[in-house]
Amino acid sequence: MKNTVYTILLAFLFSACKHEVKPSDIAKVNGYWEIEKVIFADGQHKDYSINETYDYFEIKGAQGFRKKVMPQLNGHFEANNISEHIAVVTKDGQTWFYYSTPYAKWKEELVSVTDKELVLLNAEKKEYHYKKTGPINLTGDGKTTK
Fold first, then answer.
1. Model pTM?
2. Which one of 30, 32, 88, 118 has the fewest beta carbons within 10 angstroms of its own beta carbon?
3. Distance CA 63, CA 40 (A)
4. CATH number of the domain within which 98 lies
């Protein structure tokens, strides 16, 4: 009986620690994100100190897109016409991004999102950690960046 009580308490503790993404949190995904690290299924991780590209997300309601952009030193972003369509699906307390391109389809779980951090988990159990970022302006001209 004592073991059962401990097991129930542990299960409750672990379920209480899981961060549930609310529908209102999805809007926080919009914007520019720079990858910080990837944690692999075996616990190893790869840190990214410098990134040539950022991920730009734009989601309205349950639809949106993600595309790769390259920050320029003048505060602008260079992008191509390739984007990944996103369908946002919430099921059983989890939020999923279903991506599609003309070449592939896949999904990632939105593990957590704040104003400054984003965590996505793919089917291979790779956990992608991003930090919110913005334009770079090294020109020093005082002009507003786009």
1. 0.80
2. 30
3. 28
4. 2.40.128.280
